[in-house]
Amino acid sequence: MVVSSLTKGQTMSLEKVAPGLTEIFMELGWEPILTGEKEDYSLEWCVFLLGSNEKLISDKHLIYYNNMTIPDADKSVQLMGNNIAGLGSISPLQ
Asked: Does this model's pTM top 0.85?
């Protein structure tokens, strides 16, 4: 198992870090800067699945809150849930 934390703008080559990788779990977390005022934060992220030509395979291969799985029989890439607070574990999307 490879565990890594990335910071803004940082990248990692999965081919180099874990050759033969067959499964990955990604989690996005943050800690809001408290200013004393009530503020709501929402982070959104997405996954682009590219073909060998380095272009998006199809619109259905863009994973985000409104398209949570790719169109293969195994649902091999899927968005599992949402944590609206940024701390702790995820919960299913509402």
From this structure: no
